[in-house]
Amino acid sequence: MKYYNAENYDPASSIGLSLSRARNLLAREMDAAIRDLDINHQHLGIIMALGRKMADTPLELSRMLEIDTGLMTRMLDRLEKQEVLQRVRSVDDRRSVNLQLTRHGKQMVEKIAQRAPDVLNARLKDFSASEFREFQRLLLKFIDA
């Protein structure tokens, strides 16, 4: 089924604008919650992905977080300079670089894990348990379409 067409499409009321606004709102609130860590929400994704063993190379992170490789390189440079992570040559393939969190990076994982749920829970406070599950289901369906 097609929900939009040339006659009824209004950017101001489209699902695209709503998703964009929701993302920007969540990013601002997450940035405020982690500001004292000297990182932003994009860095948070990298740090948590490494900390939770969801990825360990720049390419895996780029794909998972849907960030272009140039921006990923710049963010990794900054996090390396802040001693949050380090690049380590792969022993299996010297052309490949693996990423590892430093002790400081691992401490950041713990701090983020304590703060991020509060930001998300504040946004979800008016959802019932079934609404929350349905919201998750619908978002995944939208992403996978």
Automatic annotation (TrEMBL):
GO molecular function: DNA binding; DNA-binding transcription factor activity
InterPro entries: HTH_MarR-typ, WH-like_DNA-bd_sf, WH_DNA-bd_sf
Residue ranges of domain HTH marR-type in the record: 12-144
Keyword check for DNA-binding: yes
Entries under Pfam families matching the protein: MarR (PF01047)
Alphabetical keyword list: DNA-binding, Transcription, Transcription regulation
Gene3D superfamilies linked: Winged helix-like DNA-binding domain superfamily/Winged helix DNA-binding domain
Tagged with keyword Acetylation: no
Protein name (database record): MarR family transcriptional regulator
Source organism: Duganella callida
